[in-house]
Every structure is written in structure tokens, then in C-alpha cells.
Amino acid sequence: MDDLLIRKLKKEDTGDVSRIFVTIMKPKASVDYIQIIEEQMKKKESASFIAELAGKVVGFMICNIISGNFGLLEKSAWIVMFGVDPKFMGQGIGNRLAKEVFRVCAEKGIKSVRTSVRWDSTDILSFFKNLGFDRSSFINLEINL
């Protein structure tokens, strides 16, 4: 994977992000990728990246940088969307994307990166655990309307 390019997310990546996410999630998810990426482009600080191999987008990691949220006053980063084209899974692409997020966050003085994972998503949970993630002091709460 020496020829893998990790670069900042651009608005033009919307179609590729959508293609990868839909391939992974099947038609289970209805996500407005255009809005998500446009919101990322408006932010002053960004830690969202694309992985390209031979000019083809093969993965992405979208990360929000926030501060002052529910008991966490320091600036932190949250990985909100992540995906690797199934044809390229298991080749270290997700790891390279995460390492770039970590590097950029550290440069910005951010001391923690967080994410939420479904308890029954063992593959993604295993991925994040291998990166060093562990349970945090936060509990996800939800109300179904």
C-alpha cells in the first residue's frame, strides 16, 4: 500500500463516499452525503480524509472537531462516518486513515478522539479496539420517536 494517498476530503468526493457507504450498509441507510460533506467544507477545522489508490477513492473517514459538549469542555474529535470499499478491506487503509486523523488532531492540540459503535458491530468494534480505542466515560442515550 505504498501508493495509497491519504488526502483531505473535498466536495467532489460526495459520490465516492456515497458509493462506498451504500456498498457497506446495503440500502439500510438513507444518508444525505452532500449535506454531510458540505458541512465539513464549511468548518474552519477539519480532520476528514479520503484514501485514494491509483486515482480511485477506496476509503474515507469523516471526523468532527468540537468543544464544549456535555461535560467535555476540551476540544475533541469525533469520527462520525468511516468506510473502506469492501474490495480493499483488510489492507490497512482504515488504519492509515485513522493515523492521519490522529496526526492532524495532535497537531491541533486535541487530546482525544471518540466514536460510537453499535455493540453488535463486532468487525468495526474490533477495528477501533486495534487502533487503541476503549470504552469511555460516556454512555450513549437514545429516544425513539
Would you mind describing this structure in some detail?
The chain is α+β, with helices and mostly antiparallel strands. The protein has one domain (4-131): Aminopeptidase (3-Layer(aba) Sandwich), CATH 3.40.630. 32% of the residues lie in helices and 23% in strands. The chain has helices at 14-25, 33-42, 93-107, 122-131, and strands spanning 4-8, 49-53, 56-66, 76-84, 113-115. The chain has a five-stranded mixed beta sheet with strand order 1-2-3-4-5. The N and C termini lie far apart (45 Å).
SSE inventory with pairings:
Blueprint lengths: L3 E5 L5 H12 L7 H10 L6 E5 L2 E11 L9 E9 L8 H15 L5 E3 L6 H10 L14
Parallel strand pairs: 4-5
Antiparallel strand pairs: 1-2, 2-3, 3-4
Gross CATH architecture = 3-Layer(aba) Sandwich
Fourth-level CATH superfamily: Gcn5-related N-acetyltransferase (GNAT)
- Dominant shape: globular
Overall pLDDT level: 85
Task: Quickly describe the structure.
This protein is of the alpha+beta class and 145 residues long. It contains 4 helices and 5 strands; from the N terminus they run βααβββαβα.
Pick out its properties.
alpha+beta; 5-stranded mixed sheet; 4 helices; 5 strands; 32% helix
